[in-house]
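[Q] Does anyone have a clean structure-token version of this?
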Amino acid sequence: MDQDDVSIDIIFSGICLTTDIDNLLNHMNNARYIRELDFAKIDFNERTGLYQRIRSHGGSLVLGATTIRYRRFIKLFSRYYITTKIIYWDEQSIYMEHRFITPTDNFINAIVLCKTRLTNCNADQIITDLLVNSSSCDIESAKTQKPEKTLELAKWIESNEISSSFLRNPKEI
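[A] Here you go.
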């Protein structure tokens, strides 16, 4: 993984089969998007070395939140690919964006934001180590690779924080 891989898409390909369709029998079931997304995340984590880096620091990961916006159906027997990229990280979590794209017209059929929470390790340190150990950049230049939070991501994180606060203290909200 070179220093630009934080923003480069990793591509995972698929095809909508009869086992993937909804009860209308003509397009991918909404739950299948999440299932396929899990395969794409595993592929991303392995190909970039992210999972190995987390484990080498004694950490683990757990999915903290996911939101998906469906834009157009993926029809039966249609090919698609999923792009995955890290769009932001903080001390505790890594945020990724995934896009389900049809190759015939490069249309984004669905876009997904995911928060992966790291346990027993620091996400800032993991990403810095990943950049330093897999490229020729030093620690200081690796730290400058951190992208700015987009407005969409900032609002999504805020929404999740409000929900968590409510669940911890439902009488306060």
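[Q] Thanks! Anything notable?
[A] Helices lie at 30-48, 50-56, 123-133, 139-143, 151-168.
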